[in-house]
Design brief:
This protein is α/β, with parallel strands linked by helices. The chain is about 40% helix and about 20% strand. It folds into 2 domains: about 1-175, HUPs (Rossmann fold); about 190-280, Pantoate-beta-alanine ligase, C-terminal domain (Pantoate--beta-alanine Ligase, Chain: A,domain 2), CATH 3.30.1300.10. Helix 6 crosses helix 7 (about 150-165) and helix 9 (about 205-220) packs antiparallel against helix 10.
Length: about 280
């Protein structure tokens, strides 16, 4: 596996890959890799001839007081994991390779970026759309893979690609991959490492409470009551607060009062100073 830290080396390495022929898949990450990330890589390898992974902790998607400085950085370990999975090229730029000193451009995607994490983290999805667009332009992949745990992020990226008429990759080649979960159901996340042993055990109540709420809805329960019960369960199970627990249309992310046949349950909650998100289909 080659590792590129500068744009010049990235372009040279990509040129060599393209001379070999075949398709190129991009798996963008912020590092601190876990089984969820590696699942993306494996899916990419199934569908493309060459896989390029990126590791970049994007400062533009962190707000004031968020965990930019504390976010885990373990490039050597991550590099070894990616090489073992058959990644051809790792793009691990320094911040000035992505945002030069006089950088002045921002991409803002309305609609799908509003509400949910967009309401709780102002500017977050502008940072996501901007860096992903830059990664697409830098690598020019035929396809890209993202985890469905960040469902709203995936919706923002697809809308950005569609609205800007991107062709490398085209919006139809931006693939979502199902959430990978721990044995107790908690969605895998780099931020899970922040949890104390006690908080980690309590965090397992999140997917359980979500499944119970979905069962209640399927049984004809009212959405307000089902979501209210979900929040109460989380707070009594050790969570400090619940940012949101909402039904949204899976495609448009429009807020729903009842299941429309395409609903998804979205939850964000805080425990021990760590913010966890999850989502599940209702129908």
């Amino acid at each position: 596996m080659q590792t590129a830290r500068t744009l010049e080396l990235l372009r040279n390495s990509l040129s060599v890959l393209r001379q070999d022929g075949g398709s190129i898949a991009l798996v963008p990450t912020m590092g601190a890799l876990h089984e969820g990330h590696l699942t993306l890589v494996r899916r990419a390898r199934q569908q493309a001839d060459h896989v390029v992974a990126s590791i970049f902790v994007n400062p533009r998607q962190f707000g004031a007081g968020e965990d930019l400085d504390a976010y885990p950085r373990q490039l050597q370990r991550d590099s070894e994991l990616l090489e073992a999975e058959g990644v051809a090229l790792l793009w691990a730029p320094a911040p000035d390779q992505v945002y030069p000193e006089d950088y002045a451009t921002n991409i803002s995607v309305s609609g799908v970026s509003e509400g949910l994490c967009g309401a709780e983290r102002p500017g977050h999805f502008d940072g996501v759309a901007t860096v992903v667009c830059k990664l697409f332009n830098q690598v020019m992949p035929d396809m890209a893979f993202f985890g469905e745990k960040d469902w709203q992020q995936l919706a923002v990226i697809r809308r950005m690609a569609r609205d800007l008429d991107l062709t490398r990759p085209h919006v139809d080649n931006i693939h979502g991959v199902s959430i990978v979960r721990e044995t107790d159901g908690l969605a895998m996340s780099s931020r899970n490492t922040y949890l104390s042993p006690e908080a980690r055990e309590q965090a397992a109540s999140l997917p359980r409470a979500m499944r119970d709420a979905i069962s209640a809805l399927a049984g004809g329960g009212e959405a307000d009551q089902s979501l209210g019960n979900l929040q109460e369960v989380l707070l009594t199970s050790g969570f400090d607060s619940v940012d949101y627990a909402e039904l949204r249309d899976a495609d448009t992310l429009a807020k729903l009062e009842t299941d429309n046949g395409n609903a998804r349950l979205f939850v964000a909650a805080r425990i021990g100073g760590t913010r966890l998100i999850d989502n599940m289909p209702v129908s």
